[in-house]
Write a structure and sequence with these properties.
mainly alpha, elongated
Length: about 110
């Protein structure tokens, strides 16, 4: 019975470590996002970035890692920083003139 308890405790420890490592990697990735957003130069790359950011968030959420309040607050704060960077980049891109061709070809 003692051996079983040790095995269960070891499994829980390994699970929590894995969750912590995944959380740390996710937070590290989120911290880099404002710098990444600053490099966006076209509306197309902005849209592609939004898709990749959404996929990254969904991927982390699907892992089912339980977060404590401090971790939730940290992710929320990083989310606000990312949102601010996205708004600034959107405003910058909206101010950039876009050349429209004289005629548009309609695909058949």
């Amino acid at each position: 019975m003692k051996n079983l308890l040790y095995i269960v405790a070891a499994c829980l420890f390994l699970t929590s470590c894995g969750g912590t490592e995944e959380y740390d990697a996710y937070v590290s990735s989120l911290k880099m996002q404002p710098a990444v957003i600053d490099t966006i130069s076209t509306p197309q790359s902005y849209a592609a970035y939004l898709d990749s950011l959404s996929a990254m968030a969904c991927g982390f959420e699907e892992k089912g890692i339980k977060l404590d309040e401090t971790q939730k607050d940290e992710i929320a704060a990083l989310g606000l920083q990312i949102q601010d960077a996205l708004v600034k980049t959107y405003d910058r891109l909206a101010q950039t003139p876009v050349m429209i061709p004289d005629s548009l070809e309609v695909p058949e």
